[in-house]
């Protein structure tokens, strides 16, 4: 009797048990790590009988990060830009920021006036006035004039 080995195929890697095993091998470690992490964060490690989650990390914070308003961040960035480059660049970027985020339009006047006052301190009144443009209803010019007079 002659046995042929050319037409025999193994079921290695094709059966449903193999697929289930591979899926469990990938998913089970992830589930175990996440459940262990969540269990550790729920334990009250501080000894206080409070019901807080992550007690140790939340109570030891000595200073809280103060979130700053977008207009304050923009004002500080533009004032720095005015010092490093010139008021024209800062005014251009102010106009671009207001065009990009219309919610900043209500703060445009105060930011432009601050830029005008800073320009007078950095360049003097005559040279600061030469940078004036109609950004935010000529508020830059009014900031220059208010500082000068």
What's the topology here?
Blueprint: H1 16-42, H2 55-59, H3 70-84, H4 87-100, H5 105-123, H6 125-130, H7 139-148
Helix pairs in contact: 3-4, 3-5, 4-5, 5-7
Structure description:
The chain has 149 residues and is mostly helical. Helix content is 64%, strand content 0%. It is built from 7 helices and no strands. The chain has helices spanning 16-42, 55-59, 70-84, 87-100, 105-123, 125-130, 139-148. The radius of gyration is 33 Å and the shape is elongated. It starts with 15 loop residues before the first helix and ends with a helix. The mean pLDDT is 77.
> Strand tally, please?
0
Give Rg in angstroms. Answer: 33 Å
Topology order in helix (H) and strand (E) letters? HHHHHHH
Distance from N terminus to C terminus (CA atoms, Å) equals 116 Å
Could you name the ranges where pLDDT drops below 50 across 5 or more consecutive residues?
A: none
Tell me, briefly, the overall form: elongated
Helix content: 55-70%
User: SS-based structural class?
Assistant: mainly alpha
Q: Averaging pLDDT over every residue, what do you get?
A: 77
Content of β-strand: under 5%
Major sheet characteristics: none
Total number of helices: 7
């Amino acid at each position: 009797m002659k046995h042929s080995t050319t037409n025999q195929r193994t079921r290695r890697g094709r059966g449903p048990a193999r697929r289930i095993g591979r899926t469990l091998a990938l998913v089970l470690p992830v589930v175990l790590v996440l459940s262990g992490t969540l269990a550790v964060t729920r334990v009250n490690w501080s000894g206080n009988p409070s019901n807080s989650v992550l007690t140790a990390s939340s109570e030891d914070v000595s200073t809280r990060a103060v979130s700053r308003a977008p207009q304050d961040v923009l004002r500080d960035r533009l004032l720095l830009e005015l010092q490093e480059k010139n008021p024209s660049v800062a005014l251009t970027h102010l106009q671009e920021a207001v065009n990009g985020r219309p919610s900043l339009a209500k703060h445009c006047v105060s930011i432009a006036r601050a830029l005008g006052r800073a320009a007078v301190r950095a360049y003097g009144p005559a040279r600061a006035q030469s940078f004036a443009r109609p950004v935010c209803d000529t508020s830059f010019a009014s900031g220059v004039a208010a500082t000068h007079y």
